[in-house]
Amino acid sequence: MSKTSSSNANHPQLTGAEIIWATLVGEGVDKVFGYPGGAILPAYDALRKFPIHHILVRHEQGASHMADGYARASGKVGVCIATSGPGATNLVTGIATAMLDSIPIVCITGQVGSKVLGSDAFQEVDITGITLPITKHNYLVTRAEDIAPTLREAFQVATNGRPGPVLIDITKDAQQNSAAFNFEAAAPAAYRPHPMLQAESSSIQQAIELIQQAKRPVILAGHGITQSGAEAQVLAFAERQQIPVASTLLGLGAFPTYHPLSLGMMGMHGESWVNNAIQQADLLLAFGMRFDDRVTGNLAHYAPNAKKIHIEIDPSEINKNVKADVALIGDLRETLELLLPLLPKNSDTSWIAEVNAMKGDAAVRDIINLPDNGHLYAAHVINDIWREALDAGRLAQTIIVTDVGQHQMWEAQYYKHDSPRSLITSGGLGTMGFALPAAIGAKVACPEKDVWVIAGDGGFQMTASELSTIVQEGLAINIAVINNGFLGMVRQWQEAFYEKNYAASPILSPDFVKLAGAHGIDGAHVSVRKDVTPTVTKARTSGKAFLINFQVEKEDGVYPMIAPGAALHEMVRRPASDPLLETAEDE
User: Fold this and answer.
1) Which CATH code, of 1.10.10.10, 3.40.50.970, 3.40.50.410, 3.40.50.300, is assigned to 364-556?
2) Which residues are catalytic?
3) pLDDT digits (tens, 9 = 90+) for 201-223
4) Which of 127, 491, 544, 566 has its CA at a distance of 20 to 30 angstroms from the CA of residue 326?
5) For 146-197, how does the pLDDT look when each residue is reduced to its tens digit (9 = 90+)?
6) CATH architecture classification, 3-180
């Protein structure tokens, strides 16, 4: 008898399907998002025996986005499940979204029986081959006894180091056959960090020297701060060294917006003073960010006089886009805890005063008290949603989940995030249709919080079928549709770079309030500024799902904007003739 079979002699014989759920329970999973089908039916048949709540989605893409939103809101692993063939391929967009943003999800797919693999059997597709470039790792399991070890390893892979999605494809016969189940024996080998994941003492010393020599340093705060749980360390570092902090889109909330050292968002639609500060800096401290092209602009002209210290857990990101003068490879929180005691306190605030002077009248993006010129702008809506949450004392208990497009950038500009995991958005992939299902995942993860969907009329229609999932689950999710009758960001680019040739960007939409009503969700139309806050309050306090259709200006633009190929400081500003300047003097 083999060692494995001997160790399992006193453990129950379970079907592979039962082993799937038993292992998930052992990993602490109590919620999964999925859609059944033939090749995964054995698993669904066994689900009734286990204390796991299954959320039935309306499309498998929704399942992967829900698992993603659940992971971002909770910090835990999100789990989704689908059948073979089209069920598995429908997960792909959500998997890619999680991969680009380093989100730990585990995707379980059914597969045809092992004896017909490779025969083009009904609903057979090589999902491990398809997802190889967009997963951190993936597996094909053909034996019941391999299910538990593979699942447990998948959770380890998804969460250790730089997080990411993992897919496990399990054949139907592996689910139907039986094996001894021993959760403890299925544990993977102890995680061994990459040998480079230890900041070397010589590099630490070089970093200290650069920091002490710098006169115009800027911290670039990325998503890795939240992934590492390093918010307190970054705050302590910035305060101790008196260094202003610029945030990436996914870094918003990792450093509190209210703090005097907070500059706001950098990059393509970042604040003008933030981008100018980066361009004038003599030292950039990149904390858990990857120098994405939307952050840097033209690399040849990016922060030309600045030394760069890059603290990053993924060695492959070092020198990939921007050359680092000092690379500290490792977990951000651990690395900052090494650095902090070695740095004397800095009391020179002259650089901060210089940066603050760059802001001028644009120091605060708050248009609540400025004149209402009769037009309703998306900026009004988003600022008022933030103000209503603030005035109600619910800001720390509010999660905003955005779709992708103009409204996403306006949200980053006009909603002030003071706490981590308060903004959930698709950054790297820019996935339209993300917001509604991701918000379901966030609400399932954090039922005590107010969850707002902010979506455009285009992206919302991509996954609007998940409104029924909201009703079926009884989730009190607030939905703000920013309706301008266009694919807004596409239209803005067509206006700026294609001589206003609005090819295929005007979009016809249904009556969103009636659509919500057909699903059993209350709603309201808003087209004037004075109705925004009362309707937002009504939605938030209704105790159930509520949709607001905000009919906003059709041809508004997001500014500042950096054109393709331009340097970070070469920002396109809002045209002087634009009527929003009457109510948004900060641009």
Assistant:
1) 3.40.50.970
2) 60, 122-123, 172, 489
3) 789 999 999 999 999 999 999 99
4) 566
5) 999 999 999 999 999 999 999 999 999 999 999 999 999 999 998 877 666 6
6) 3-Layer(aba) Sandwich (3.40)
